[in-house]
Amino acid sequence: MSSRASRTVYVGNLPGDIREREVEDLFRKYGPIVHIDLKIPPRPPGYAFVEFEDARDAEDAIHGRDGYDFDGHRLRVELAHGGRGHSSSSDRYSSYGGGRGSRGVSRRSEYRVLVTGLPSSASWQDLKDHMRRGGDVCFSQVFRDENGTTGIVDYTNYEDMKYAIKKLDDSEFRNSFSRAYIRVKEYDSKRDASISPSRGRSRSRGRSYSRSPSRSRGRSYSRSRSPRSG
């Protein structure tokens, strides 16, 4: 069977009032759905991870729904890149490029923070949603290797960056799989350019928890194959 990462698509720019059943209706014609993990953050847009039984169905869903207009929202659909915390060890990092319709094109800024102490299941989507509590995020990136997980987040302006450091340093980071207390500081290009995730983790409190109950609206589905329709 194909890997979970190759069978799971990320669906972005969802309206804040969307229901899981509506997400299912959008994608069920492409093949049997195993699981839907719908996330509605305090500040829209929402997003979801949709896992199919077959990687080919995931590819069909990307081709069929990327750019689709749903209730005035132009959906962004792409392979999840291990965003649900199941990336392979060869996946060194994942990233988010801000801006409407960016489709992964990086929009960097000089107002950058370094985030250490992230759980291994953290994705760029999770990091972005947590860090935008401090302001307008235009880029986020998560690095993974055998030593740990570290994030870099860019803000659109200096005030948001400073507020994020004050508000989110030593805050509790959560996703569907785990939670941990993270440290946030201003990124220093000279000091942090070569920082490794292991060094970042050593300065964090490292209070990681075992798998916690999901706060997302996830649901598993039966494996009966439904006929495709146009």
From TrEMBL:
SUPFAM superfamilies: RNA-binding domain, RBD
Protein name: RRM domain-containing protein
A single MF term (Gene Ontology): mRNA binding
CC terms in the record's Gene Ontology section: cytoplasm; nuclear speck; spliceosomal complex
Biological source species: Punica granatum
Family to which the UniProt record says this protein belongs: Belongs to the splicing factor SR family. SR subfamily.
Chain spans, region Disordered: 81-104, 188-230
Biased composition (Low complexity): 86-95
One GO process term, biological-process aspect: mRNA processing
PANTHER family in the record: RNA RECOGNITION MOTIF RRM DOMAIN CONTAINING PROTEIN (PTHR23003), SERINE_ARGININE (SR)-TYPE SHUTTLING MRNA BINDING PROTEIN NPL3 (PTHR23003:SF62)
SMART domains linked: RRM (SM00360)
RRM domain residues: 7-82, 111-189
PROSITE patterns: RRM (PS50102)
